[in-house]
Amino acid sequence: MDSTAADRFEAGRPRLASLAYRLLGSAVDAEDVVQDAYLRWHAADRERIEVPEAWLAKVVTNLCLDRLRSAPVRRERAAGTWMPEPLLDGDPMLGPADTFEQRESVSLAVLTLMERLSPVERAVYVLREVFSYPHSEIAGILGISESASQQHAHRARGRVAAVRRGGGEVDPSSARKVLEEFLAAASSGRTERLVALLTDDASAVSDGAGLARTLWRYETPARVASMMRTAFRPTPAKRRLAGGSPTIHLGRVNGWPAVLAVLDDRVIGAVACEISDGKVAAMHGFAAAERLTRLTGTWRRHRPDAPVVARW
Measured between alpha carbons, how far is 90 from 229 in angstroms, rounded to an integer? Predict the structure, then answer.
């Protein structure tokens, strides 16, 4: 491949990676798909490709759909252990963030919701709402009619709207204040204050550090508060298990305010929180090392503010 063709691909790599991440919910899988697309670009008769960006978007989208439809992926996601791979703000894979729809599309709530959409609905939603492709082009990418593309988009938008919290986007400073209060209550074991900081329908999900066969789910404010008190109240046994005393930072994961536990320059735990009307409505907890590898890499390049807890 000549350098011009290679440079053209590399210039579009971040956009292709953010497309693949939104479709798959996994940065690792997104990187694999983009590399496969590179190999196809290398082997293609590029003189016959009129619009390289559209050709590459079609290749990446269909590689993602092939992966989503594969039997191993279906079995893995049906087993109840799948969660989106968290990305720290500043990661280029989060992609465009100019509009509310673009930012919402990488929220942990929407990435989780995508699992309930068909692969084609998922692709239409992302191509239309995030990357602003017209339905005529989406139809060509997916091999469907333009009217079918419109119908898939309508259904997908309806499902996304159904999980959208009231109040719109939250001011970062307000979200930080809620998280600081929540962390202080959890660290001190004040369950009553924790419950007061949760919405009436608050829920939480955790990967259980990868030790459980299924995800750990908590569906009531009382259970969420109990889980957070147990997780964040420091004890000597927890420090031994962690390998030391981590520092606790506040950051943003997939656009949500998050609590990050950092030890020896490595993120060992992250809890991302959805804020609604000044309270915590949903929480996603990550402690499995394989889910935090990329987030740690971004952390090292773009460190958030000083720790809110210097020694947990």
Answer: 30
Higher-pLDDT residue of 150 and 77 is 150
pLDDT reading at 77 higher than 80: no
Q: What's residue 168's pLDDT? A: 65
Q: What is the pLDDT of residue 75?
A: 66
- Residue 126 CB contacts under 8 Å (≥ 6 apart), including other chains: 19, 22, 23, 105
Looking at CATH, the fold of the domain delimited by 172-301 is given as Nuclear Transport Factor 2; Chain: A, (3.10.450)
CA of 118: how far to CAs of 19, 81, 133, 135, 285, in Å?
A: 16, 19, 19, 18, 26
Can you tell me the distance from the alpha carbon of 64 to that of 21, in angstroms, rounded to the nearest whole number?
Answer: 9
Encoding tokens for residue 37?
């697309």
Tokens at 30, concatenated: 């997104």
Rounded CA-CA distance 139/264 in Å is 49
Inter-residue contact 131 to 19 (CB < 8 Å): yes
Q: Are 128 and 138 in contact (CB under 8 A)?
A: yes
Q: What residue ranges do the domains of the chain occupy?
A: 3-162, 172-301
Cα angle at 257 between 255 and 258, to 5 degrees?
115
Separation between Cα atoms, residue 126 and residue 143, nearest integer Å: 16
Nearest to 120 by CA among 99, 135, 100: 135
